[in-house]
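Notes, p. 3: input format for complexes.
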Amino acid sequence: MSISEIAATATVTHWINGKSEPSTSGRAGNIYNPATGEIIAQVAFASREEVDHAVAAATAAFAGWRSTPLSRRAEVMFGLRDRIVQNRRQIAELLTRENGKTSADALGEVARSLENVEFACGIPNLLKGGYSEQCSNGVDVYQIKQPLGVVAGITPFNFPAMVPLWMIANAIACGNCFVLKPSEKVPSAATLIAELAREAGVPDGVLNLVQGDRVAVERLLEHPDIKAISFVGSTATARHIYETATRNGKRVQALGGAKNHMLVLPDADLAMAADAAVSAAYGAAGERCMAISVVVAVGSVADPLIDAIRERAAKLAVGPGSEAGTQMGPLITREHRDRVASHVSRAVQQGATVAYEGRLNPSAVGDGFFLAPALLDQVQPGMDCYDQEIFGPVLSVVRAATYADALQLINENPYGNGTAIFTRDGGAARQFQFDVEVGMVGINVPIPVPVAYYSFGGWKTSLFGDLHMYGPEGVQFYTRSKVVTSRWPDPGSSKVDLGFPQVR
Ligand code: NAD
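Output follows (504 residues plus nicotinamide-adenine-dinucleotide):
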């Protein structure tokens, strides 16, 4: 299906066995263009039977795919990489159309998606096991990594291409078959990726998509043929996914929400810290799980830092993501926009002050789900704007007297996804890296999303499960190891021995 066909499709439907599969459930949802507020298409909502159909296709494909030589699987991943490069603009257009992010940000998402495919191109090297010779007389021991079988992924609205590829690339390169349930708000990019995967040589049934809502998710969580679940989304859903799927005997990695703090010490480069705070708080309209939502200003840096952030925020161009010059697009839905907006007035009732609140240009935003950037000062734990994940363009400033107070604040927060410190003091930065109870740390880097050859994951309620996503831990998640102890026949030394095997 081409981009124009996908864009013109009235109903985005499932992708099963290498082709688009019409839905029979009779249930569907609306897809909006957040920049205009218009309904642009429908998305099918799978029934339990449709999920079973996708899982059956994946199960049937598994034996052939797991025995496909590693060199061929690598070749397929190289092919997928090339097709994503060739179609990067089309993928980005779909991201802007359904998610609202700017064209530049959408191209950035595609670039970060590619890294995961490129990592998976090295699968022959990644699946090397270990070999120990002569563990006992004539006995060698080695470890091999084998795929799990059929695995499933459930993904959020904010990275419609990248988060699916965090999962798909490693999962299928390792020899698994995959069933993805994309976010029902942004389903089209995944359909284009599935089409590109087929063109690259991914056999039918190895990658399947079921569109839908929680009905599809619940069936995936309980389906006996699904061996593992990868999830990315809000903490409440992540917890539910983890508890339900582990109870059903599945391996689970469930990444949840975030409240990312940026600690600014008085010696920081003020302009650099302000640029970083504005970029990381308002980029993608604050709808990134690694967005900075709290600046913790230590000591005397607070007033000049707030001035510098205000000055930059006031210059941000808010408008449709497809228009040149737009820096911040709309939020994902009208309801979400209204919920984010309500945080500003509630914060004031609860004792915060508004350091800056932008105004929208009515002719630029029309009926889209836009919200101007806001900056709150004097924020404290206990206020809703601090305690809740806002997931929008509202940045809070908490003033801390000392580094120790700032660190305590971050470590007491129930989330632990990302954090950053801004300072010129290498010793302070190193101490922060040592002390902070957060999974991903930036030193003068505001959005420290690890490169694809490390793994992505937070701590505390930002991740349920033991293994982080993509990179080496992704390979570990999608494989199980088998240890083989072998001896080749040596009739001269064979005898009956009922004792427990000894190695010395
Ligand atoms: P969400 O939890 O509402 O939805 C995520 C997925 O779960 C979707 O596919 C959705 O259909 C499904 N889902 C939603 N509610 C469900 C339920 N009750 N039962 C079963 N399935 C359900 O998240 P979202 O609004 O799409 O995405 C935003 C959230 O994702 C934010 O909290 C953000 O922090 C988080 N996120 C986290 C990371 C990370 O790496 N930690 C990355 C991206 C987004």
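The chain has a mean pLDDT of 97.
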